[in-house]
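For the sake of transparency, this paper describes our internal protein records without simplification. Because each token names a local backbone shape, the row as a whole describes the fold. One such record is reproduced below, unchanged from the form in which we store it:
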Amino acid sequence: MLRRVLAQSWVWRLSGISYPTAVVATHGSLVGPSTYFDRCRIQVSQLRVHLPPVHRRVLEFGSGLGGNLVALSSEFEQGIGLDVNRGFVRIAARLTSGQYREKIRFLWYDGKLVPRFHDGFDVIFSIGVFERLARDVVERSVRDLASQLNPGGRLLLYFLSTRAAGQPLVERLGVQAYTLWTRQEIAGLLSRAGLRVVTLEDWYGWDSSAAARRLAKPADLCVATLPEAAS
């Protein structure tokens, strides 16, 4: 019964009333802001190598507590974080209210259509979001995000793989709590959104050590671009 309750989207959206509940919801354990930001810096190092030559404007879909945008802040001129959880948006704004106030904005959206922005983005990325959304919502969201990508820009998207089915993080809530993707399904999703897959690789998250890279990872990072941007 508890697993079925935790799998509901409203539980995820209402979590994040405070920093402790938010960080446990997003990272699975209670860690202080310093450790949280350290983890995010390690995590985004895998994204950094795939950034296009021009990446002035960056959008994160499902920005959580904002650590990923902070970790990438030296790479862009303006960053926007979108999240369906008002608590996460509030906490992210508070955590980044100092030196990042003019550079990063965090916005709430209703989980339906992705908001349209006046200017496009050179980089759009999402980590740890699509496994919590139904497939039709993911399909629509990827299409909406792709429509706001500048020529030469890139989407960097995290998908929890079918290989995660036996992993502790999935067993804790049950497979029904997640949407798991095969690489073939990911490729089809991006193709239907009018995107070309640049690379599809194992996701290393917080652990990018040589030892970790020898192990099969239960998640994938997909890097995609618009076909006309291909060299």
Notes: The CA atoms of residues 21 and 204 lie 24 Å apart. The chain has one domain: 2-229. Strands lie at 57-61, 78-83, 104-108, 121-126, 149-160, 196-202, 219-225. The chain has ten helices and seven strands.
